[in-house]
Amino acid sequence: MSGAATQAMRRLKVAELSAKIFGNTFNPTGARNGNYILRQGFRAENIVQYYPSTQEVNVASLRRMNKLFGMTFYDPDEIDRQNAFEKRKQRGKGPPKKGHGKRASLAKNKKK
């Protein structure tokens, strides 16, 4: 028995020395650790290069740029939205004036 135990100890020592020499991690119990993930390297630079920049071009940013350069910007969707809003407002479907909404009318009824 003692011969097998000493051989096992020698194997562990050899494994530890080889891990030190070759730059590997020594894990005699075989416990799971994140070393394989840490060895993969840092991928963020490649990911940043792959995807386009986060500064998206939208209508608001185009308007700001055009105001700086003195140009006018025509957005048909925004004009349609404003026209629809005006039609709803003419029919009385727009938002109520400040202090005349549902909550304000409920509060007035409670006071009476």
Give a short synopsis of this structure:
This protein is an all-alpha fold and 112 residues long. It contains six helices and no strands. The chain has helices at residues 2-22, 35-39, 44-50, 59-69, 76-90, 102-111.
Low-confidence stretches: none
Which percent range fits the helix content?
55-70%
Q: Average pLDDT, to the nearest integer?
A: 83
Tally of helical runs = 6
Taking the alpha carbons of the first and last residues, their distance comes to: 97 Å
The tally of beta strands, per DSSP, is: 0
- Order of H and E elements: HHHHHH
State the major sheet. none
Class by SSE composition: mainly alpha
% residues in beta strands: under 5%
Radius of gyration: 36 Å
Q: Can you tell me the overall shape?
A: elongated
What labels describe this entry?
112 residues, mainly alpha, 6 helices, 62% helix, 0% strand
Explain this structure.
- The chain is mainly alpha-helical and 112 residues long.
- 62% of the residues lie in helices and 0% in strands.
- It has six helices and no strands.
- The protein is elongated, with a radius of gyration of 36 Å.
- The mean pLDDT is 83.
